[in-house]
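To: structure subgroup
Subject: Chain for Friday's discussion

All,

I'm putting the inputs and outputs inline so they're searchable in the archive.
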Amino acid sequence: MFKYILKRILISIIIIFGVTFITYSLFRMMPDNYVDAKFMAQSATNPNWQEQANLVKELYGLNSGVVEGYFTWLGSALKGDFGYSFIDGSVVTEKIKSSLPVSFIMSLIVTILQLGIAIPLGIKAAVNQYGPTDYITTVFTMLGISLPSFFFSGIVIKVFAVDLGWFDASLGLQSGNFNGNGWELFWNQAWHLVLPIFVSTVLSLGGLMRYTRTNMLEVLNADYIRTARAKGVKKRNIIYKHAFKNTAIPLVTMLSGLLASLFCGSMIIEQIFGIQGIGYQSYYATTQGDIPFVMAYNTFIAVLTVLGIFLSDIMYAVVDPRVKLGH
């Protein structure tokens, strides 16, 4: 077990280095240079803009080759220094910390709802194969998988905010004319999160529901399930004690990306609803070529993804004792 963990840690470190190098290389190859564009816009009032731009490039290794620039960034990153945002000059780590909570809360609620709805419905559809429940969930699954998030978000805003007036049509985390604090502020912000959470939940149900149904059907057709039925074991015990226990094994693998998804936010949905979480910030930073922020964000997500896969492998051995993590 120790050798397995040590091997996975070494592989994970190599993967993180590879991800960060590829990300850095792609950003260095972008045609637009945000540093030059930012200082050039100040050329009318700042005659020394070119010198200042060169100083910023020197600081971040942008006036050297890609490999040399990457190792300049890596040296600072290993010390915990991800630099300052090109956009507003704020400390990158502080900017990420300030935008993480709202995205984490949204993702956590969506994940709980997704697991609590999709898995029971997937089991129900498998148990009642070709019945009304199965057909309804299948249609619902296809809608969730097929609808683009921006299109569905627009429909939800139009119906519930504009037509029915149940929600504030203004975008953002709170109403534009709101000046309260304490619990009033909490409930105002919570009410603004209902629609984006609803959209994210509906769009995320389809894949997990279908995955659960498929695996449950495979297990229900196994020989030991038929044997249990022949022995007169209660249907409920067959489904939840025997069948679902084995269905959970592939589900553990699918949930390996759960840890990263809790923190990465949703770029499109946060953008549409004006929620300035980590997804919104990363989208804006990407479009503006904010290399320090994007590199820090992608490094953070890469570490979480690798950690999630590692924990998934450990959990695989927990839910299935036949799996030996020794290689």
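Points worth raising on Friday:
Residues 26 and 66 are 9 Å apart (CA to CA).
The two ends are 8 Å apart (CA to CA).

D.
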